[in-house]
Amino acid sequence: MFRIAIEHIKKHPGLIPQFFFILLGMGGASLYLVRLAKGPHVTWNKKNNPEPWNQLDPTYQYKFVAIDTDYKNLKKEGPQF
């Protein structure tokens, strides 16, 4: 498959930007999936830490981009677990 792509690039050099942006998009999507898999709402080990989201500080920024929320001034409103 990779060899066929190289042959197409040699025959049609105009395809180089297309291959570049496709690979860039695939790489970005893969990195984003890895970032989501390591988030505080994902549990990979239920025996040692069944609820990891309870151990987070209330000032932890959950969202990737928080436009109008200032997480530094938040106070915890729930009970301590």
Q: What structural category characterises the helix and strand content?
A: mainly alpha
Main β-sheet description: none
Strand content: under 5%
What is the number of helical segments per DSSP (H or I, 4+ residues)? 2
Fraction of residues in helix: 25-40%
Which spans have pLDDT < 50 for at least 5 consecutive residues? none
Alpha-carbon Rg, integer: 22 Å
Distance between the amino and carboxyl termini: 53 Å
Q: What is the H/E order?
A: HH
Report the principal-axis shape.
Answer: elongated
Count of domain modules: 2
- Count of β-strands: 0
Residue-averaged pLDDT: 79
Pfam families: B12D
Transmembrane segments: 15-34
Keywords: Membrane, Transmembrane, Transmembrane helix
Organism: Hucho hucho
Can you give a write-up of this model?
With 81 residues, the protein is mainly α. Helices cover 40% and strands 0% of the residues. It has 2 helices and no strands. The longest helix has 22 residues. The mean pLDDT is 79.
Task: Summarize the topology.
Blueprint: H1 2-11, H2 16-37
Quick structural gist:
This protein is an all-alpha fold and 81 residues long. The protein is 40% helix and 0% strand.
Summary keywords:
about 80 residues; mainly alpha; NDUFA4 mitochondrial complex associated like 2a; about 0% strand; 2 domains; 2 helices; membrane
